[in-house]
Amino acid sequence: MVNKKYTLSIIREARIDENRTPITPNQVQELIKKFPNLSILVQTSKKRCFRDEDYLNAGAEITDDISNADFIFGVKEVDISALVENKTYLFFSHTTKVRNYINQATQDKAIIYKKELLREILKKNITLIDYENIREVSGKGYRYLGFGRFAGIVGCYNTLNLYLKLQKEKSLPRAFEINNYEKIKELLSKQNFNKLKILQTGRGNVAKGSMEVLKHANIKQVSINDYLNKKYNEAVFCNISTREYVERNDGKDYSVQDFASNPHEYKSKVKNYLFDTDMLITGHYWEPKFPKLFYPNQINEFKNLKIIGDITCDIDGAVPTTIRSTSIAKPYYSIDINSMKEIDLGKEGIAVMAVDNLPSELPNESSEEFGDSIISEVLPYLINKDDGRINRATTASRGEFCPKYKYLEDFIKQKD
Fold first, then answer.
1. Which residues, 6 or more positions from 276, have their beta carbon under 8 angstroms from its beta carbon?
2. Mean pLDDT score of the chain, rounded to an integer?
3. How far is CA 48 from the centre of its chain?
4. In terms of CB atoms within 10 Å, which of 1, 67, 321, 330 comes out highest?
5. What is the gyration radius of the CA atoms in the chain, in angstroms?
6. What is the dihedral of CA 105, 108, 111, 117, to 10 degrees?
7. Reduced to 3 states, what is the DSSP secondary structure of residue 353?
C-alpha cells in the first residue's frame, strides 16, 4: 500500500436496529495517519453509534456517494437496491449456512432476502467477502474477526437479568441503557443468584464472553464431574464443549475431524447435564448437519430447566425452544413445553432469550474490538499480499460463485 491509492467506505446499515460500525472514528484516524494514500468515505447515518461529525473530525469524508470506493465495509444485511456494481463488499451476509433450504420452497423472509441478495451480487458483478469465513486454514478454522465475545457478554447479561425478572426481584437496567461493560460488571457483582445451576455450551469467543460475565456475577465455575454429582449452596456453572455433549452412535471415541466429516454418526448426550440444570446458555457453533441438543419430547424430563439463553439463536436449530428470534426492545418470551407454542412471559413453561443482534446493545465497545481485527487481520491481506484467508472467504466474484460456494447456485435457482 506504499504507492497505490485506495479508498475504503463504511456504509449506512440497512437494519433499523443496527447501530454498530465496522471501523470507528479513532480507527479511521489511526489508518489515515498510518497510510497517507488511504481515503475513507463514510455514508451519513443517524443511528450509527458514532456521529458523522466524529468521523469527519477523524479525517473521513462524509458522503452518500460511495461509487469511488475500492472496498465497501458494512456489518449486517445490506440494502440490496443500494448495491454498487463492480465493487468489493465485506459484511456478514449469512449466506453460507443455507444448504437446508436448497431445493425447498420457503416463505421465510430472511431466506428470501438471502436469495435476492446473492442474485443481485452476481448480476452486478460484485465481489462478496464474508467476514464469517475469514478463518485460519489449519486446526479448527479459527475466525479472525467477529462480534462473538460481545454477543456472549450481552446474551449472558440478558439471561441473568431474565432470571432476576422471573424471581420478582428488581431487574437490572438493560445493557443498551448502560452502554458500558465496566458498569455492567459492577452491577452484576452486587446481585444474588442464589443456588442457580447453569450449563454453558461452547468453547469459542461467544462462550468465553458469556463466562466472563458469569464470573463477574460471582457465579462459581465447577468441573463436569462435580456439576453432575454434587449439590451446592451457591450459584455455579459448568462449561461443556462439543466433545462433552455428543457421542458416536456406535460408542467409538469422539474426534474433532470425525465429527466434522460424519456428524450424522453422532447424537447428543446433553440431557445427562440438563436433568439438574436451572438455566441453559448456548454459545456453541451449530449447523443443520449437526445433532440437535435435545428434542421437544425430551423437555419434560428436565424438571428444573426454566430459562434458556440461546445466544447462538439458530431458529429451529440446536435448541427447539427457539421458535423465533427476539429483538433488543422485546428480548424474551416463554414456551409451553407441551404444545411448544409461545405463551406470555412468566407463565408456566420455559423462558427464552433469543436476541439475534446482541452486540448492538454495547455498540461502541463491540465495534472498537471488531475494528481492531479489521485493521490487523483483514486490511493487510486485502490490500497487500493475501495468505489465503481473503480468497477462502470470497463467496462470489466476476459474476459467479467461487468454487467453494458453488452450491449456492442451486440455492438461488429455487423460486419461492
1. 197, 228, 304
2. 93
3. 19
4. 321
5. 22
6. 100
7. strand
Bridge partners, residue 392, by sequence: none
- Where does 211-326 show beta strands of DSSP type E? 220-221, 236-240, 246-248, 266-268, 279-282, 307-310
Closest CA to 358 of 96, 159, 125: 159
Residue 98 reports pLDDT greater than 90: no
Strands 88-91 and 71-73: parallel
Short-list 259, 210, 322, 335, CA closest to 269: 259
The amino acid that residue 412 corresponds to is I
Given pLDDT bands bounded at 50, 70 and 90, which one contains residue 3?
low
What letter does residue 140 receive in the DSSP assignment?
T
3 state DSSP class of 217: coil
β-bridge pairing 266-268 and 246-248: antiparallel
Beta strand pairing status for 71-73 and 236-240?
A: unpaired
Work out whether the CA dihedral 75, 81, 82, 88 comes out positive or negative.
positive
d(CA 212, CA 237): 12
Mean pLDDT of all residues in 274-301: 94
Q: Is the pLDDT of residue 294 over 60?
A: yes
| Residue linked to cell 454453558 | 200
Q: Determine if residue 326 is left, alpha or beta; phi over 0 gives left, psi from -120 to 50 gives alpha, anything else beta.
A: beta
Distance between CA 410 and CA 400 in Å, rounded?
Answer: 13
